[in-house]
Amino acid sequence: MTNELFIDLSVHHKPRGFSDHFALGFTKLLRFCADTFFAKRYGHRAVVLETVAAVPGMVGATINHLKCLRRMTDDNGWIRTLMEEAENERMHLMTFVEIARPTLFERFVIIAVQWVFYVAFFLLYLVSAKTAHRVVGYFEEEAVISYTHYLAEIDEGRSANVPAPAIALRYWKMPANATLRDVVLLVRADEAHHRDVNHGFSNELKGVAPAGQVIAPYPEHDLEIVGLSRKEAA
Ligand SMILES: [Fe+2]
Ligand SMILES: [Fe+2]
């Protein structure tokens, strides 16, 4: 099905200044840790990393919400956008947990990482929101690369192209015969959209708007099922 879903896989924000270099360095360090820990276990990698990916949107939404209350100003749509990003990442998690069940050790890692990452990202956002959004932009560049590798694993037969989980069929409005490959394509498109939105937010906070900045199209989602249990949504 969605084979032709076009996204630009090569987007990379060239770092400019300390804030960008810090964001890129931090991202590359985490990428190295993830590559070492998971190697080619892409299903497990997706489950654990989506528990992290769903954090920044909610942190950004909370801090912007509080700022708007204090300053009595408009948010220009940032809060909804960031909350939707967090929800979308949580739906990625709900999907991949149907594909790969985390081990006991991975569950421990998820809890430990959440404590550290939530607090660290919250503090970073307070100190420098533009750096925080740049970090997410770079995280999403890496997510696009990882899901491209996952697609290659499926195409080369190393990961079974199982039927798409029921929750994914509903959320991305896919036909009943959709497979894991179709899901990964749509998840990758979601990540590309977040990538461009967050680089855009960082640019806006920096007061720069690079020429030719485009936002990758966002796949259509059924938002009605976001609050339902997996059983109800199936
Ligand atoms: Fe994700
Ligand atoms: Fe993402």
TrEMBL record:
Transmembrane stretches in the record are 108-127
GO MF terms on file? alternative oxidase activity; metal ion binding
| Keyword Transmembrane helix on entry | yes
Q: How is the cofactor bound?
A: Binds 2 iron ions per subunit.
Subcellular localization(s) per the UniProt record: Membrane
What cofactor does this chain's UniProt record say it requires?
Fe cation
Sorted alphabetically, the keyword list is: Electron transport, Iron, Membrane, Metal-binding, Oxidoreductase, Respiratory chain, Transmembrane, Transmembrane helix, Transport
Keyword Phosphoprotein appears in the UniProt entry: no
Residues that bind Fe cation 2: 89, 140, 191, 194
Tell me the Gene3D superfamilies matching this sequence.
Alternative oxidase
**GO BP, sorted A to Z:** alternative respiration
Locate the residues binding Fe cation 1.
50, 89, 92, 191
GO-annotated cellular components: membrane
Record-given protein name: Alternative oxidase
